[in-house]
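User: Can you write out an input/output pair for a complex, sequences first and structure second?

Assistant: Here is one pair. Inputs:
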Amino acid sequence: MANLTINGTSYGLDVEADMPLLWALRDELGLTGTKFGCGVGLCGACTVHLDGRAVRSCVVPVSAAAGKAVTTIEGLSEDGKAHPLQRAWIAEQVPQCGYCQSGQIMAAAAFLTENPNPDNAAIRAGMTTLCRCGTYLRIHAAIKRAAAESSGTST
Amino acid sequence: MNDIVNVSLRRREFLALNGVAAGALVLAFSLPGTLRAVARLNKSATAVALNAFVEIDPTGQVTVLSPYSELGQGIYSSLCMLVAEELDVEMDAMRIRPAPAEPQYMLTFGGAMRLTAASLSMRDSFDPLRRAGATARAMLLQAAADAWGSPFAELGTEPGHVVHAATGRRIGYGELATAAAALEPPAEVAMKDPADYRLLGRTVKRLDIEPKTNGQALFASDLRHDTMLIAAVRQAPQFGAEARVIDASQALRMRGVAAVEEIPSGIAVLADNYWRASQALDAVEVEFGPAPGPVSSSAAYREKLLARARGAGIVAEQSGDVEGAFAQAAKTLEATYDVPFLAHATMEPQTCAALVEEQRCTVWAPTQLPDGVVTTAAEITGLPAESIDVKIPYVGAGLGRRSMTDFVAHAVTLANRHRGRFIKVIWSREEDMQHDYYRPMAAARFHAALDGEGRPLAIRALVAGDGPERRHAPEPDIEIDESVMEGALHQPYEVDRRIDYAFEYAPAPIGWWRAVGHSYNAFFVESFIDEMAHAAGADPVDFRRQLLNKHPRFVTVLDRTAEMAAWRKEPWQAEDGRRHAMGIALHGSLESICCAIVDVSIDDAGKAQVHRAWCVADCGFAVNPLAVETQIEGGFAMGLSAALVEEITIADGRTKNGNFGDYPILTAPQMPAMEVALIDSGEKLGGVGELSTPLAAPAVCNALFTLTGQRIRSLPLRKHRLNSPRTA
């Protein structure tokens, strides 16, 4: 039995300790916003937060998540309103197919926590989630927009 | 135990939240935002259909039935715009859902099929969807005229309402819908003058964006049901080989595993959780049969293609006295190019869900070709086509991969054996990479006959390869495979030419990859044009312009791009301390024209770094400029990805690449800043989704030549050791 805290709710999950967190989220809990892309931690579509840090949930066993706060795209916004990054994503019209975007937004949220005022080079180096549709420029713009908003300056 | 019960309850909650009812697995697409949509969906049970494409509910909400799949190109929003424009409603009243697989939704190729590809979604629906909106509006006007006893001609509309100026009367479309639906649709209906467009041609925010930012957008892999079995599959590594289960006993003892099965060319494990299915797959003892086709390698095939390129082929295009031009040429120029096999690598690996019941089969398929899904499912189940219901969730990118139905066959095969149970098949990334229908490898040889000043007298070229058109045609005796030759033929440059086609069977599954033949022919043609320009000592922009004297649309796009980029024909020392150079490429495809200029340097690791890209496109008229711009950006990114890093390697009749580690795709730091401009020429609508993809490789390689003097004629760039920049 693994005790997990996901998006503020505690769950006792009767799953194997080595089940990747991704498949506990998706197939046991129905939190399907987190996507499967590669299974080996290379693409980032499955990015969630563990205690606020971005991790690739396809390579994090459930046992490693026990006792930590897991946040998924479904729980990114704490107050039920859109998170500043989600608003920025809409303003910049980022997604195309949308499949990688949960992972992109979760990666961006953790990145901004660590780098509240990133410059262009930091964003380029810090965002490593793959996007086949080529939305990278809009992702970049949305991160800048959200950073500017939260620091009180306008874009 | 209480915890588990809680989890189960929460699962039901999520099923409901996602619009998937616990017992019924209904895919409800609603925009924006699924949560609100569920409530709306319930309401729209009372919606009435005014025609095949337009439904209106009592609140005035309009639902468009989409014949096309939302692959990320923004087609849902653009189709809503077409209807909203003529129906006269605001965009926030618009919703859309996928249409069932029925004949009235076959708008492609003159009503022959339903296909989301080649921007046909817009090109083939521009008239029918506007007409559907205009017809519905006329019926609503007639219903109001009947209700009020007013002359039809005195009535008009304001967004969502019929109004009668003389009496000040006003009524919402929702209140008129039922009466309107009972009327005979008018045979003739006038559509708006483009000068009166309120929506079309203006940037409209996409309706599918919000659910794609909060995890609520449903993809096929997100479908859930309490009794669902989730399947992991392993196909025979060699293309088309058979697979046989030798011993499944260990796998069957593993937790959650329900069955181990043979499927066409592979095996499947069905379990209650995808990871459990994958783990058990590794525990199955399986024997793979020999490959049915020729076992070959990409290296051997490349040599064959290059050899074919040195010979003669079938003449596909000829103009002027090419032989004569070569006989009197002062000098000649020759170059041979080649490109590798490429994977689609959609971020959502191939996935499909299916349910087969007594007399019905429902398939949830991320597909570009619902007709193909029907055919595949009917063949497997033995049910008539009318009994196959295709539901199309959001598609985790199409890129041409989803016009094949191999992954659909997996889901339906398993569902047919487990009747009454929902089956969901998810391919691993490795399965997806190794069992793609690849962009074919191709090679070409170009010759130019030049006069004493280096000006071209004639071009002779041959493109050797194999294409999806021939491979997947019912009768594969095509003389000239357009899918190999498109982009090499009918180029706008005014030079006498002879262009040949040579078929050489590709030893791998091949398919339609974004921009298909254009994806490599633009590299061949635009590299060679650049080589000719340098041979003539001419500025590559001026050189192209001089050859385009009969094609003013191309000249406009070319000059606008050069102006936007502040074109520089010589390398320069940039502020970052490096030498930079620009390269250009111009190409027409799918009745549109695009030009790209890039600014390139070489980084410390000796790799090409593309800093900026400028793209100008003329697609006739951009229905939603935002959607077109994002397609130009994304299409260019995919072309750049292929140019820089992508290559599928085949050996022993199988694909050697497995995941993004050995099949890298473009990353964020490799993406250049882009400036995109659209030219509204008012010409016929052209394609946009594949328009910029072919330009990246030639533009970058042309820039590298200016920068280093090294001409790259074989992709991807990462296999080359690049020269250092020339010093000033």
